[in-house]
């Protein structure tokens, strides 16, 4: 069979798509990934064939309208969700012609895309083939962001004679059942597995010393969101709790930001490190609330203190907070003494580790991507 994956929307959604696409190739199927040009090196570097379908990048899709005008930044949770839905829709619209051209030339048997890779539903509808839609992280779809995406995609829907985004033939969800929202639609469960890039390892990446180890990261978005750069890390690294030497601190981020951190804090290990490799060595992770970051840490049973860069990042974490595996603060600008108190609490209160491990066990018990590939085979 031929599996056409539609991916993109930043690095994290690509990472989330890789395990299923790789499982399809391992099962002997042909796979091509359609994605924005900015994601091609990442996708091909992860061992998957890819075709660029738009020169538009994620930053422009999110921050500018279709005429290229800068948009005012959203205020409030609902506005943020609408803003995000429309941004993903603009990126999908920009890649629609290229994705359709690829599909008509290659003739896939099934189209598979992330929740907000919305060219996928339109191409599957046009070709009359099954559509598989999958979550990138913990289920977080709301009526607000889906309506925003639908409204933004209205010209393309009308082009295909549609008044709504087509439903999937099969919906695949990686959310652990214990923290899956009650309103979530029925789904084929799938085990979360990491799809991030790798590098040659050093011993400290997979083994730690006697001190508690805390990792700080702001994910791949730190490359283009100033609030997730040095302004995110400095208050944490200056916190007396973390710079007294009793706790080993590791900063996971890319260059050139990592170089700036190493220069300002020579005692800190800072740089790109595969999160799935270092996660089992961690006692706590402090981060911005990115979905792929959350899932990678949950699958390793790591407690998480979340300092969300946007209000909407807290939505999917609420059931995880209630479960007791994470603690999400109101924002990434909380007073340092309050952050320190929460770090101390999470390091000393073993219930966070216990609940995080409960979710890790639950994730490990879900069907592997290879099993989901078999379910997809049954659609054709």
UniProtKB/TrEMBL annotation:
GO molecular function, one term: UDP-glycosyltransferase activity
Record-annotated Erythromycin biosynthesis protein CIII-like C-terminal domain positions: 245-378
Alphabetically ordered keywords of this record: Transferase
InterPro entries recorded: EryCIII-like_C, EryCIII-like_N, UDP_glucos_trans
Domain Erythromycin biosynthesis protein CIII-like N-terminal: residue ranges: 98-219
Coiled-coil parts of chain: none
Highest taxon of the lineage: Bacteria
Protein name, per record: Glycosyltransferase
């Amino acid at each position: 069979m031929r599996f056409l994956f539609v991916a993109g929307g930043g690095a994290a959604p690509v990472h989330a798509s890789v395990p299923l696409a790789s499982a399809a190739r391992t099962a002997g199927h042909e796979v091509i990934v359609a994605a924005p040009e900015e994601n091609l090196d990442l996708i091909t570097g992860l061992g998957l064939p890819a075709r660029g379908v738009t020169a538009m990048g994620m930053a422009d899709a999110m921050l500018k309208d279709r005429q290229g005008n800068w948009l005012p930044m959203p205020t409030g949770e609902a506005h943020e969700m609408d803003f995000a839905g429309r941004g993903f829709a603009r990126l999908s619209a920009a890649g629609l012609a290229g994705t359709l051209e690829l599909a008509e030339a290659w003739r896939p048997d099934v189209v598979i895309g992330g929740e907000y890779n919305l060219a996928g539903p339109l191409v599957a509808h046009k070709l009359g083939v099954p559509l598989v839609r999958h979550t990138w992280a913990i289920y977080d779809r709301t009526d607000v962001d889906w309506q925003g995406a639908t409204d933004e995609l209205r010209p393309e829907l009308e082009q295909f004679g549609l008044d709504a985004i087509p439903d999937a033939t099969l919906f695949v969800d990686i959310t652990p059942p214990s923290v899956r929202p009650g309103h979530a639609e029925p789904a084929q469960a799938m085990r979360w597995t990491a799809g991030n890039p790798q590098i040659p390892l050093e011993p400290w990446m997979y083994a730690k010393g006697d001190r508690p180890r805390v990792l700080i990261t702001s994910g791949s978005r730190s490359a283009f969101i100033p609030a997730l750069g040095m302004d995110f890390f400095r208050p944490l690294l200056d916190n007396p709790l973390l710079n007294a030497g009793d706790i080993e601190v590791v900063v996971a981020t890319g260059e050139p930001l990592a170089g700036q951190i190493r220069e300002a804090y020579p005692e800190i290990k800072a740089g790109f490190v595969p999160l799935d490799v270092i996660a089992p060595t961690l006692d706590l992770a402090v981060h911005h609330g990115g979905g792929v970051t959350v899932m990678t840490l949950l699958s390793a049973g790591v407690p998480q203190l979340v300092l969300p860069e946007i209000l909407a990042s807290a939505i999917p974490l609420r059931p995880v907070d209630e479960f007791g595996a994470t603690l999400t603060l109101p924002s990434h600008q909380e007073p340092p003494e309050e952050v320190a108190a929460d770090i101390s609490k999470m390091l000393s209160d073993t219930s966070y580790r216990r609940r995080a491990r409960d979710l890790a066990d639950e994730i490990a018990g879900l069907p592997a991507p290879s099993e989901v590939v078999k379910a997809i085979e049954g659609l054709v």
